[in-house]
Amino acid sequence: MIERRTVLKTGAALTGALGGAGLLIPATSSPARATDLDPTSIPQFQQAMPVPEVLRPKSVSTTTSYYEMTMKEADAEIVPGHLTRVNTFNGAFPGPVIKAVSGRRVVVKQTNELGVSTSVHLHGAHVPDSSDGSPMDLIAPGGGTKTYTYPNTQPHANLWFHDHAHHQESETVYRGLAATYLLTDLVEQTLDLPSGAYDVPIALRDAQLDADAQLVYTMGDYAHRTVIMANGKAWPYFEVAARKYRFRLFNTANMRFFKLQLSDGSSFQQIGSDGGLLEKPIDVTSVAITPGERADIVIDFSRYAPGTQLILANASPMLPGDPADQVGRVLQFRVTRTATDTSRVPATLRKLPALGTATVNRSFVLSMDETGATGDAFINGKSFDMDRIDTEIEYGATEIWTVTNANVYTPHNFHMHLVQFRVLERDGQPVTSGPESGLKDTVPIMPGHTVKLQATFTGYEGTYVYHCHMFDHADMGMMANFRVSKTPRPSNRPPRTRGTR
After folding, report:
1. Which end of the chain is more exposed for a tag (fewer CB within 10 A), N or C?
2. By the 8 A CB rule, do 429 and 437 touch?
3. Alpha-carbon distance 267 to 262, whole Å?
4. What does the pLDDT profile of the chain (501 residues) look like in tens digits?
């Protein structure tokens, strides 16, 4: 098991840039090691960005598609001419894509051939707690197995797999254990959005590499993870036709915030977020996603002549001294040809369900040690304990949660299992439009700021978690249990014990 590391003084290297807040925190982390690979030596835009493979089911029935996935190490060419050892699903980096349909069940048998225990969480999914990937519902290393059942009773959404084993997920996900799950439904299918080869998932993340191009992991060391990857390649290029493309963006990084824009400053459309399509498309010049968040965008390349090259840039504020030519670049689009385009983005994409009437209000405070003395992190003053129920919820209840970041320097974000929620307010200001007006499961919270969320807890009873989705913060203890029950029990009764398989 990975031991909890002591974080760096003042929390500076925990997050560096404070997302879109325009704030910088002090740079107090140590300089890069002499044994690290110099990121400036990595040629940019020399590797083609791959499109993740769509996984085929092993078998199908009238109601269910059955898949098998194996977690194992493999070698990937992140940097041209070098092989890097990574954690994978099925040996693929990035992991494969499962395409699912609302109302049709998916069953996945996971086999763990890694050297550490794992727990597979389908991020953003509405599932029974037995298939949620609890932090202590572990699959044993060296061949342990677990079968997860995903009923897919929720509407369309861009979901993703990642490890959730407590005190280990930070490193195993950093080393690559992530994959994509695209859930569709009739609402989405009846739209003429770009599809097929013109609908591309892109997993974004960062890394630090040593002189042999192997991943270097240090808890909380955001500052040295300056190699930016898109679909497993460092600064790749992607060839496009002069037509519309749909890009489903996933922030799979441990800590890094991305604010993505085109290098010529031109606009594009955001059509969705975590929980699927927005009600209406939004014309934007940038999209911001923190770890765990997703953004669904459409870029129309028909305005560019073949031969045009554009950079998808990262405009998020950076640490003082952060190299803009590294963390400020993500990938290059190359317009190589013309193409017929019958796709369109309609003025109305979907109708979101009406907000219910909330009957319960709760408050949550996220905090962590910013002195470096302990490296502990908390929700409401408590560090994570799997045997403690922190919040009892009555099945079917609609609740409003007010979540505050009590830190001075360090941003957090907040992820809730089981349900998608709606963002009602930010610092007392109503959220009625924009990227956060849709269904969400992860939201950023800047230091000293507050968000107000509303969710309805239905579908399944059981024990789930809520936590900061900056993986390093969750591993430091910024996580808590909630239990949904039709017959609420005393809060001091421990949840059902789950062991290692």
Report:
1. N
2. no
3. 8
4. 334 333 433 333 333 333 333 333 333 344 566 689 999 999 999 999 999 999 999 999 999 999 999 999 999 999 999 999 999 999 999 999 999 999 999 999 999 999 999 999 999 999 999 999 999 999 999 999 999 999 999 999 999 999 999 999 999 999 999 999 999 999 999 999 999 999 999 999 999 999 999 999 999 888 899 999 999 999 999 999 999 999 999 999 999 999 999 999 999 999 999 999 999 999 999 999 999 999 999 999 999 999 999 999 999 766 666 788 999 999 999 999 999 999 999 999 999 999 989 999 999 999 999 988 888 999 999 999 999 999 999 999 999 999 999 999 999 999 999 999 999 999 999 999 999 999 999 999 999 999 999 999 999 999 999 999 999 999 999 999 999 999 866 554 444 434 433
The separation between CA 384 and the C-alpha centre of its own chain, rounded to angstroms, equals: 21
Cis, peptide link before residue 155, omega less than 30° from 0: no
Report the SS3 class of residue 450. Answer: strand
Write down the residue that tokens 């949620």 correspond to: 132
Residue 458: phi, psi to the nearest 5?
-140, 175
CATH dotted code for 196-338:
2.60.40.420
Domain-wise residue ranges, the chain: 196-338
Cα(114)–Cα(169) distance, integer angstroms: 13
Query: Per DSSP, what are the bridge partners of residue 391?
Result: 482
At residue 23's C-alpha, the angle toward residues 20 and 24, to 5°, is: 125
Strands (DSSP E) found in 395-448: 398-405, 412-416, 422-426, 429-430, 442-445
Q: Which residues contact 148 (CB under 8 A, 6 or more apart)?
A: 107, 108, 109, 110, 120, 122, 127, 131, 133
End-to-end CA gap in the chain: 16
Q: Are strands 237-242 and 329-338 parallel, antiparallel or unpaired?
A: parallel
Contact 244, 302 (CB under 8 A): yes
d(CA 200, CA 194): 9
Neighbour-count burial of 40, counting CB atoms closer than 10 A to its CB (0-12 exposed, 13-18 middle, 19+ buried): exposed
Give the C-alpha separation, 434 to 338, whole Å: 32
Residue 347, amino acid: A
Asked if 105 contacts 209 with a C-beta cutoff of 8 angstroms, the reply is no
Please give the Cα distance from 72 to 111 (Å, whole number).
9
Contacts of 282 (CB under 8 A, 6+ apart): 269, 270, 271, 433, 434, 435
List the structure tokens of 481: 């249990």
Q: Strand 479-485 vs strand 391-394: parallel, antiparallel, or unpaired? A: parallel
